[in-house]
Design brief:
GO molecular function, one term: DNA-binding transcription factor activity
Keywords: DNA-binding, Transcription, Transcription regulation
Number of domains: 2
Radius of gyration: 19 Å
Structural class: alpha+beta
CATH topology of the largest domain: Jelly Rolls
CATH class of the largest domain: Mainly Beta
Strand content: 15-25%
Distance between the termini: 47 Å
InterPro entries: AraC-bd, Homeodomain-like_sf, HTH-like, HTH_AraC, HTH_AraC-typ_CS, RmlC-like_jellyroll, Tscrpt_reg_AraC-type_HTH
CATH architecture of the largest domain: Sandwich
Number of strands: 8
Pfam families: AraC_binding, HTH_18
Domain HTH araC/xylS-type: 183-281
Largest sheet: 8 strands, mixed
Helix content: 40-55%
Number of helices: 12
Amino acid sequence: MANTILTGNTFFFEPDLQLRVVKRDPEIPYRLHSHEFYELVFVIGGNGINFTQSEEQPIREGTVFFISPGIEHGYRNTENLVLYNVLIGKNLFAKNFLDLSELPGFQSLFCKIGSIPYLQVNPSQQAELIPTLQLMKTEADDQLIGTGSKTMAYSCLLILLVSLSRIYDEIPRDNNQVVRRLSGVIDFMERNRNRPLTTKELTQVANMSTSTLNRYFQHCTALSPIEFHTHKRIAYACSLIQEGNLSMSEIAQATGFSDANYFSRQFRKVMGMSPKQYQRIWTNKLN
């Protein structure tokens, strides 16, 4: 059976701005396929395998990867996998990005030929990127004459490309094996975003000593395991704020902070602003 080729005509309705953001919730197993366009993938929940004809790559919350036109890939072993697909037309991506192409991270993440580069963002980085993704989706879906939506959507794309390129530049490239060893404990953290975890619990899940676990996390994330889990809980709090269905005290309880003041202090430490400030910024972006 011939592999599926996804064409631009299926997704792009405006020739002036070939840009589309599609949320897959859930993303189901999908056989090998390729695209006529570029695809930037953000995994925001669950886990699975992204595979090609020659390799498999585990993906989970925080995984970002970039697929060039013509590269075949698919998904298998998906479990509650949720992701955003940013679809970018070849003509749009060929535009002059000014000094963006001078960033080493841009060259490594977005200009590789014949392979799929991967990046793992931490929870606080993800919490900062998702609102830009969601705003880009809103503006790209709109594209009404006289609203500036095309310019806004394109601006969001540039912000994402610069942000991801800078993040890629900051991460040591020898982390892949370490990240694989940490995959079990990171999945455990993901399943327990609603409560604090102890170092003892984490070392038992990881089957490592405290010093080894701390060293690996510091190497990959510049955070201790407990700090990384706190970042995950705050990222979860951000998603709950974006949904707008719970009060701040309910969000604090849902993310395992029994004291609202402590929740606010931890939120400010991770996000650089209070939960209320984040809520106002998010509401203003939507409006």
